[in-house]
Every structure is written in structure tokens, then in C-alpha cells.
Design a protein that fits this description.
409 residues; alpha/beta; 6-stranded parallel beta sheet; 3-stranded antiparallel beta sheet; 18 helices
């Protein structure tokens, strides 16, 4: 790998790693955010005339701004660069030569069309790890199709399993699940590639993560069941397929509690808590498969017990007995729960435009080199141009001014 200036001093296990983030919205930028959370220097590149639409995304607005952007871009260096121009492409190649990772989520073929595809970038930095996230992958009949989480969830099999058997239209999950899954698999691939490079002397490589395949990878036992028996798993509502009991039950105070007692041991404990020890030896419920076959009658018994018991009593009794259970929380409930605060999953930061905002904390927790939520991102596009272009590429103020005048940055 070519020589490059050291990244700014940072904390976290990825300190010293320099990442160039291209692309927009969710899948690619989420990878950048997670890397920044653990100490990487992440340089986010936006087109001067086409800022990341994430700047205005979110279901609610404050001070005429969306609230997702400050979190999605936290801890990153924000620069502008027109990758459609030859000058911008030259600068990107120079940045890649002094970096460890490039992350992008354009439609396949876009970087190649701009002259900054893997071959071009590896020519200037053979050690570079290039993470590419797309709807359908970089190869195959569907590679050039546009693809968001919606398409990956649909064709990857997740949407088919969601909802209730009687539903005509499979509902979505209420979150950008497909994109987030692809980000997690991309991070996994990136870390494996970095391990291969640093410990085994390997060169850089391309990590190809598709939203479609990331959703497909979540299908549990659906693939071998269909391949061997032709069984097509369908939606089961709030139940967990053939695993019983595992469902949501309404308590006397109308709060919903999820209960999972889907092993012989857990089921026995549930029976004791409900005051129905005889159910443990009832022929209808005496094994995993028999409980699944008689799930309707079994759940009716549990539902009747829950309906005459307040949720706090249900939760305390089951948790004390070692039965898996949890209340169905909204985000408002999460904000009131002491466990989330104790685990630092709700952290405050200060945004220049929005003031104090609450952000999600760091996952996972590392004992020696923990991550840290960076400062919420500003809405000031290109705010770090001088820091990055002068500090990393050693460009002069006159060069930067000229490129700004040309619309390159």
C-alpha cells in the first residue's frame, strides 16, 4: 500500500483506518457510520450539486430539517467532489491511494463508467478493500436493476413470510430492514478482507454485498425444507411458525407481552407459573412437535391466563422463573426504560442546527476498545473540504479555490 499521512488520533479498534464513503441514503452510509463509531476516519463524499437525499429524510422534521441525517453521518468528515468530472475522478483516485477502504452503493457499473471502478482504484492502491452494496449484486442477470430494500425484501423471500395467513398483501416491516441487513453483511465482509490483508499478507479485494442475498440469508430453515420436502413456509402472524408457544398475548391492563417457551424446559416453567403443572404431561403438549400441532388450544390457555393478569405481574413472574418474555415496546417506552439508559443506548449529542438530539448508542460493546458515538453531523455541505484536501492530499488553498470555482468541489 502506498504511503499516506496518518489519520487523526482517534479512539476505538478501527483507529488509523481511513475510509472513503461514496453513495447515499442507507446501505452504504450505514456502513460508514458503524466504522466511524469504532474509530475509523470516514470521509463522506457528496456531489456539490446533488447532496445525499438522507439530509432531508425522516418521518418528522425540526427547524425545517430531517432528523436522520445527523445520526447517519455522525463522526464523519463531510466533503464535496464531482465524480462525474475528470478532475473529480483524479482526486478520488488520489484519495483512494491514501486510504484503506472505499464503500459505495451506486448501481453496478456506475464507478466503472466514471473511470474509478475496482481495476482503476487497485491500480493506484493494490491494498484497497472496496465494499460494494447493491440491490442484486455486481454480477448476474439482475445486476443492473435498481434495487432498494423494498425489492430485496420482496424477492429475497422476507416479505412473503411477513404478515398473517389471511392477508392479501404482505406488509413491510416499518423499517429499512433490507438495506440494514446488507450493511451488516458488508461490514462482516469488510472486516474479513481487512483480516486477510493484515494477518495473511493478502492484497485488497472487492466485497460484493447485495440487499437481495442479505434478505435471502435470513430465511431460517425455509431452503432445506423446500429443497427436501417441497414445503413452502408462509406467514404465521405473530406466531413463530412451528415453534410453540411463541407469541404475543394481551394482559389484563391491555399491554402486550411476548412469551417464548418453545423448549421442554421453558414450557414446564411456564406451566408452573400459570398454575397448570398438569399441562407438562398432557399428551397434546408433551413434545415440541405436539405443541406445534396443537398450538391453537395451547395458546388459548395462555391467553386466558394473561387476560386476567396485569402485564407487570406476568413479566416479573416469568422472568423470575427463567421463561423468556418481554413487553411490546414503542420508542416512547424505550426512552422510559432504565436498561437502555444503563447500557448507553440513548446518547445525547449537539447538532449545530438542531441543538441537543438523542441518538442510538453503540452496538456491540467491546470491553477494551469500545466504540463511541461521534458528534451529530452538520447540514453544512462540504464543511471539511479544507481539512481533508489540504490535510490528506496536501493541496494548496489556491488549488482548492480553483476546483471550487470549476464546480469540482
Amino acid at each position: 500500500m502506498s504511503k499516506r499521512p496518518a489519520a487523526p488520533a482517534s479512539e476505538g479498534p478501527l483507529a488509523g483506518l481511513r475510509v472513503i464513503e461514496l453513495g447515499s441514503l442507507i446501505a452504504g452510509p450505514l456502513v460508514g457510520r458503524m466504522l466511524a463509531d469504532f474509530g475509523a476516519e470516514v470521509i463522506k463524499v457528496e456531489a456539490p450539486d446533488r447532496p445525499d437525499p438522507m439530509r432531508e429524510w425522516g418521518r418528522a422534521r425540526y427547524a425545517d430539517h430531517g432528523l436522520w441525517w445527523p445520526v447517519q453521518a455522525r463522526g464523519k468528515r463531510l466533503v464535496t467532489l464531482n465524480l462525474r468530472s475528470e478532475a473529480g475522478q483524479r482526486i478520488l483516485r488520489r484519495l483512494a491511494g491514501r486510504s484503506d477502504v472505499v464503500v459505495e452503493n451506486f448501481r453496478p457499473g456506475t464507478l466503472e463508467r466514471w473511470g474509478i471502478g475496482p481495476d482503476a482504484l487497485h491500480a493506484v492502491n493494490p491494498s484497497l478493500v472496496i465494499v460494494r452494496i447493491s440491490g442484486y449484486g455486481q454480477t448476474g442477470p439482475y445486476a443492473r436493476r435498481p434495487g432498494f430494500g423494498l425489492a430485496g425484501e420482496a424477492m429475497g423471500g422476507l416479505r412473503y413470510l411477513n404478515g398473517y395467513p389471511e392477508d392479501r398483501v404482505p406488509p413491510r416491516f416499518g423499517i429499512t430492514l433490507g438495506d440494514s441487513l446488507a450493511s451488516l453483511f458488508a461490514i462482516q465482509g469488510l472486516l474479513m478482507a481487512l483480516y486477510h490483508r493484515s494477518t495473511r499478507g493478502g492484497a485488497g479485494q472487492v466485497v460484493d454485498a447485495s440487499i437481495l442475498e442479505s434478505c435471502f440469508a435470513m430465511l431460517d430453515s425455509s431452503v432445506p425444507e423446500y429443497g427436501k420436502l417441497g414445503v413452502v413456509r408462509g406467514p404465521t402472524g405473530s406466531r413463530m411458525g412451528a415453534t410453540a408457544p411463541s407469541n404475543v398475548f394481551e394482559c389484563r391492563d391491555h399491554r402486550m407481552v411476548a412469551i417464548g417457551a418453545n423448549s421442554d424446559v421453558l414450557f414446564g416453567r411456564l406451566c408452573e407459573v400459570m398454575g397448570r403443572p398438569e399441562l407438562r404431561t398432557d399428551e397434546r403438549y408433551s413434545s415440541h412437535w405436539k405443541r406445534a400441532e396443537n398450538v391453537e388450544s395451547l395458546e388459548a390457555i395462555i391467553a386466558e391466563w394473561a387476560s386476567r393478569t396485569d402485564s407487570a405481574v406476568v413479566e416479573e413472574a416469568l422472568n423470575d422463573a427463567g421463561v423468556v418474555c418481554a413487553p411490546i415496546y414503542s420508542v416512547a417506552d424505550i426512552f422510559q426504560d432504565a436498561h437502555f439508559r444503563f447500557r448507553e443506548m440513548l446518547v445525547e449529542g449537539r447538532s449545530p442546527e438542531l441543538g441537543t438530539i438523542v441518538m442510538p448508542g453503540i452496538v456491540p460493546k467491546l470491553s477494551t476498545t469500545p466504540g463511541r458515538a461521534g458528534a451529530p453531523a452538520s447540514f453544512d455541505q462540504g464543511q471539511d473540504n479544507e481539512i481533508v484536501y489540504r490535510g490528506v492530499l496536501e493541496m494548496s488553498a489556491a488549488e482548492i479555490a480553483a476546483l471550487r470555482e470549476e464546480g469540482v468541489m
